[in-house]
Design a protein that fits this description.
alpha/beta, binds MU-OXO-diiron, 395 residues, six-stranded mixed β-sheet, seven-stranded mixed β-sheet
Length: 395
C-alpha cells in the first residue's frame, strides 16, 4: 500500500520503510529497520527531493503517482549520492523522461559514474535558488556530511530543510511521518547509533555545516532517514551539535572481550568499584556478543571508556582490536580512558591497548590492571584505584 503524507501544503512525504535489510551499508544492524525519505513539492513545477533504495523503487513511484497522477515530475533534487538515496534515480528518469536532475558538480559527476550519463541536468552552486512557482528551493553545500558531494535543500516559503543524512536516525516510521506521531524519545538511541556509526568520523564538517545553516530558520527538519522533525527541531539540532563536537555525558563504557570468563570477572569487579565510587551511568558490553555499533553509540554518549581483553596470539583479542580500530577511525579527540587485560604465559593486551590510546593521543587514567591466568579478586586489587581515578576525572 502506498504511503502519502502531506507535511505542509503542497509538500508530501513519499518515502518508504525498510524492515527487510539486515545490515545498513552491509555493516550496521537494523533491529528497528530504517526509512528512506523522499519528498515531493507540487507547485507550478513538481520537484522530487531524493529517491530511495532500489529495493523500494516501485513503492516510491506509486507514492509519487498517488499525489500527482499523470502530471510530470519536473525536477529531481539529489542531495546525496549514496545508493540508499540514489539507486532509484534511473527508474525515476525512465518514469518521467523529461525530468531534470538538479545537484552540484561533484554529485552530477558521481551520477554519471554510478548510473551512466544523463543529458538533462542542472548544476547548482552554493546559495543558488530554483523557482517552482509560488515556492523556491535554495541549495547549500555540506561537504563531508558524510560524503564529499553532500548538500542540503531549503524550501524557502515553508522553512523546510531537506538535510540528507544530517539529523537522520535508524528506525522505520510505521504509519507516521512527523514527530506529531513519532516521539523523539523513541528514536534517540537509534539517532545516536546512526550518527556515531555513519557520520561519526566527520564531526568537523558537521560542525561547519551547522554553523553555516545557523542563520536559516527551520520549521520542518526533513532528514533522509527517520521522522520529520517539527516540534523537536531545536532538540534534534542540539543532539547533532553535541555529538559532532564530541561532547559527552558523565558516564562510563566498559567494553571487554573474554574467552573463558576470567577477563569478564575483571570487568564486573571494575563495574562494582565504579558504582561504589558514585558512577551512575554505566554501559557494559561484551564484545563477543554485542555488535560494535552499540558500543560506539555509547562511546559517543559517555565521557569515559575502559577496554579490557585477554592476550590472544600475542596481541589483542580480535573483537577488542576491532573496537579499537573502529574508535580510532572516528577520530574522537579525547576520552577518559583506561584498560585492563589478562594473559596465560606472556601479556600483550594491556600494552597494545596503551599503544592504541597513545596513537589517538588519549591519556591513560589510573593504572591499567593486568592479571595472569585465573581470576581472583586479590590479583586485581588495583582495580579500585582505577575506578576512583575514573570517577574523579568524570566530575
Ligand atoms: Fe543515507 Fe549516506 O546515505
Amino acid at each position: 500500500m502506498s504511503k502519502n503524507r502531506e507535511i505542509a501544503p503542497a509538500l508530501h512525504y513519499v518515502g518508504v520503510d525498510d524492515r527487510s535489510k539486515p545490515l545498513f551499508e552491509g555493516l550496521w544492524p537494523l533491529p528497528k529497520g530504517i526509512s528512506y525519505n523522499s519528498y515531493l513539492i507540487v507547485d507550478e513545477k513538481v520537484a522530487l527531493i531524493d529517491t530511495v533504495d532500489a529495493a523500494f523503487t516501485e513503492e516510491l513511484l506509486a507514492n509519487v503517482r498517488a499525489v500527482i497522477g499523470d502530471r510530470n515530475v519536473d525536477y529531481l533534487v539529489v542531495n546525496h549520492m549514496e545508493p540508499d538515496h540514489s539507486s532509484s534515480i534511473a527508474a525515476v528518469r525512465r518514469a518521467w523522461p523529461a525530468i531534470t536532475v538538479v545537484s552540484n558538480a561533484l554529485a552530477l559527476g558521481m551520477l554519471e559514474g554510478y548510473y551512466g550519463s544523463c543529458d538533462s541536468t542542472l548544476e547548482i552552486k552554493e546559495g543558488q535558488t530554483l523557482g517552482l512557482g509560488k515556492r523556491d528551493l535554495q541549495f547549500f553545500m555540506a561537504p563531508m556530511v558524510h560524503w564529499p558531494e553532500t548538500m542540503v535543500t531549503y524550501l524557502v516559503q515553508d522553512k523546510a530543510l531537506f538535510s540528507g543524512d544530517a539529523f537522520g536516525c535508524f528506525g522505520t516510521l510505521d504509519g507516521g511521518v512527523t514527530d506529531d506521531d513519532l516521539p523523539l524519545e523513541c528514536y534517540r538511541d537509534e539517532m545516536i547509533r546512526y550518527y556515531s556509526n555513519i557520520v561519526g568520523k566527520y564531526g568537523g564538517p558537521v560542525q561547519k555545516a551547522l554553523r553555516k545553516l545557523s542563520p536559516v530558520e527551520v520549521k520542518l527538519l526533513c532528514s533522509a532517514h527517520g521522522p520529520v522533525w517539527k516540534r523537536k527541531v531545536a532538540q534534534v539540532a542540539d543532539i547533532y551539535r553535541r555529538l559532532s563536537s564530541y561532547e559527552a555525558e558523565p558516564g562510563v563504557v566498559i567494553a571487554y572481550g573474554s574467552m573463558y570468563g576470567n577477563t569478564e570477572k575483571m570487568a564486573e569487579l571494575l563495574a562494582s568499584h565504579l558504582r561504589n565510587a558514585g558512577v551512575e551511568k554505566l554501559a557494559m558490553h561484551n564484545l563477543s556478543t554485542t555488535h560494535v555499533s552499540y558500543v560506539l553509540r555509547d562511546i559517543f554518549r559517555y565521557r569515559a571508556l575502559v577496554v579490557g581483553g585477554p592476550t590472544y596470539n600475542g596481541g589483542l583479542y580480535p573483537p577488542v582490536e576491532a573496537l579499537m580500530n573502529a574508535v580510532a577511525s572516528r577520530a574522537i579527540p579525547s576520552r577518559i580512558f583506561s584498560c585492563f587485560g589478562s594473559f596465560t604465559w606472556a601479556g600483550a593486551s594491556v600494552r597494545r591497548l596503551r599503544e592504541a590510546a597513545e596513537a589517538m593521543k588519549w591519556e591513560i587514567t589510573g593504572t591499567p590492571v593486568e592479571m595472569k591466568q585465573g581470576y581472583a579478586e586479590p590479583k586485581c586489587c588495583d582495580m579500585a584505584d582505577m575506578a576512583a581515578a575514573i570517577a574523579a576525572a568524570l566530575h
